[in-house]
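lol forgot to send this yesterday, sorry. struct tokens for the thing we talked abt
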């Protein structure tokens, strides 16, 4: 039996936690409901707060690459393609000077050599990253059981610990 696993908005858990006044029980309940039903309706107060502090949009692949180049040229800062989506929004969407914006770049551009190359940017890979190509890789397929979705985290933790 295959199990459909939707994209889990794990980063949203942090946002919901902050906006709900750090109500971990509420966030846990919401995320569990989403995982079970693949849908969730936010409480009105949380939805209103979310709309006040977050915005969304999309950008083309070329826009991402151009933003990566521009950020490097103007700031000598290398963006990963994910962070470039947010910075593209900053560069291209008007905003009030009184409105503070915050963009958190959590991924290293080192992880995205293909995008860096397409943007015409080069990066000196740290020795620790260059060594990864020389390390032996290993993997193990986890067998699926009828209830594997319910137990995947426990099984994954066990497997990781067994390699340590």
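and heres what i got for the seq, position by position
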């Amino acid at each position: 039996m295959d199990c459909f696993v939707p994209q889990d908005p794990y980063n949203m858990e942090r946002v919901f936690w902050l906006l709900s006044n750090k109500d971990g029980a509420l966030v846990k309940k919401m995320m569990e409901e989403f995982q079970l039903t693949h849908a969730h309706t936010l409480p009105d107060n949380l939805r209103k707060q979310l709309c006040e502090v977050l915005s969304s949009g999309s950008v083309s692949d070329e826009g991402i690459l151009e933003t990566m180049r521009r950020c490097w040229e103007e700031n000598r800062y290398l963006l990963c393609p994910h962070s470039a989506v947010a910075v593209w929004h900053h560069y291209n969407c008007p905003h009030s000077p009184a409105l503070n914006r915050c963009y958190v770049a959590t991924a290293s551009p080192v992880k995205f050599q293909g995008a860096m190359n397409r943007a015409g940017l080069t990066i000196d890979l740290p020795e620790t990253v260059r060594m990864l190509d020389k390390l032996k890789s290993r993997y193990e397929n986890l067998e699926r059981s009828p209830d594997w979705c319910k137990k995947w985290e426990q099984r994954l933790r066990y497997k990781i610990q067994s390699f340590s």
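Helices lie at 10-19, 24-37, 44-53, 61-75, 81-92, 113-118, 127-130, 148-163. anyway ping me if u want another try
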